[in-house]
Amino acid sequence: MKKKHILIAAIIVFVIAVVLFFLIMAKKKEIKEFNEVVISDVDVSNIPDGSYEGEYEFKGLYVKVSTTVRDKRIEKVDILEHRVKYGDSGDSIVEDVISNQKLNIDLVSGATVSSKCILKAIEDSLNNSK
Questions:
Q1: For 115, phi and psi rounded to 5 degrees?
Q2: Across 40-53, average pLDDT
Q3: Second CATH level (architecture) for the domain 44-127
Q4: Of 99, 98, 104, 60, nearest in space to 78 by CA
Q5: If you count Cβ atoms within 10 Å of the first and of the last residue's Cβ in the chain, which end, N or C, has fewer?
Q6: Rounded to two decimals, what is the model's pTM?
Q7: How far is CA 106 from the centre of its chain?
């Protein structure tokens, strides 16, 4: 009877180890995909004045923005929709984009994925101006 309990315990430990292994591998793949996402600066000097919508989705996180360009500058970014999967929303990155007038900026700590998705949505909105 004791051997049977040990065998059952060993099987349970093995199954848990296999499940954890696959969860870790899936997370590593997601991190790799995220790190491969490139944010490209857009030359705002070629964009006519106006408001442009853009969006970006990554693994269940979704952002939709409206970017206003005036006098060849990013004047305003409104986050129209933002579905956060986990962590902070990263909305404060919008202020950095406006003050720096570029998209290649440091991501918000604690909201790295959200920040990058917001930047990609802004990039999309600026590219939609063409």
A1: -60, -45
A2: 93
A3: Alpha-Beta Complex (3.90)
A4: 98
A5: N
A6: 0.77
A7: 13
